[in-house]
Specification:
The chain has 300 residues and is mainly alpha-helical. The chain has 2 domains: 86 residues, DNA polymerase, domain 1 (Orthogonal Bundle); 176 residues, Intergrase catalytic core (hpI Integrase, Chain A, Orthogonal Bundle), CATH 1.10.443.10. It has 14 helices and 3 strands. The chain has a 3-stranded antiparallel sheet with strand order 1-2-3, with no helix packed on it. α6 packs across α10. It is elongated.
Length: 300
Amino acid sequence: MENSKAAFQDYLQLEKKYSPHTVIAYINDVVTFESFIKSEFDSDDLLEVNYSLIRSWIVALVDNEISNTSVNRKIASLKSYYKFLLKTKQIEVSPLLKHKSLKAPKTLQIPFSEKELDEVLHQIKYPDGFEGVRDKLIIDLFYSTGIRRTELIHLKMINIDLSNATLKVLGKRNKERILPLLPIITNQFKLYLTERAYLERITDSEYFFVTLKGVKMNDSLVYRLINHYLGSVSEKVKKSPHILRHTFATHLLNNGADLNSVKELLGHSSLASTQIYTQSSLSELKKVYVDAHPRNINSV
């Protein structure tokens, strides 16, 4: 079975072109399920699994207070694994063929307001020197381009074209896209590059964003700095790079941007992914509608 899981990992990386983080999550879910059936049913043959075993795992996860959303994600990993086994003709029927996802509550992610972004970009005090310039640029880049956290971390020096005010990012499934830069951002890029040049040593020199020690930034560091700075201007529970990406899309739509254009900027493969951001825009639209429609004004 180890060979099968190794082949599955290659399939996710090379054919599906999933990110390293996603690949690790999928493999971990399959390994966790394998451990479960080994301990509970003394079986480790994933080729002979039936739905009753999977249902037992689902029940165990729910009993351990794992959220329905998390359970669905784990089952999605397992479903992908059995699709791979079908494709490679190792099984004839997927044990998850008739599985229905658990009902999960739809949580609306609340974007930051324009006022909060104005405060974090223009009113709070950043540290002097390299880190302060870098941190402000990272926040502004998330907000002005909708770039993903992993795209920002892997942004390379050769991807920056300040003469044309663009940058090239490598998105999901190795899909490249070009993002335009606002004039105010290009000025911040130049300031950051000046500060970056003063660093004593840059080990990961090909990467654009680095730490004070000259190494490539990681996920947790980017998350912490976003949480720290936005925490000084916002009381929202969730403060993360993804909420800034959500804010970027919402503010564009609120100000009349075309949905297809926002889709291209975000790097979505379908409009369905972009439409989730219209929920926040809808609340703004409702407010404008109620305040402006003659039927509502004349009824007062």
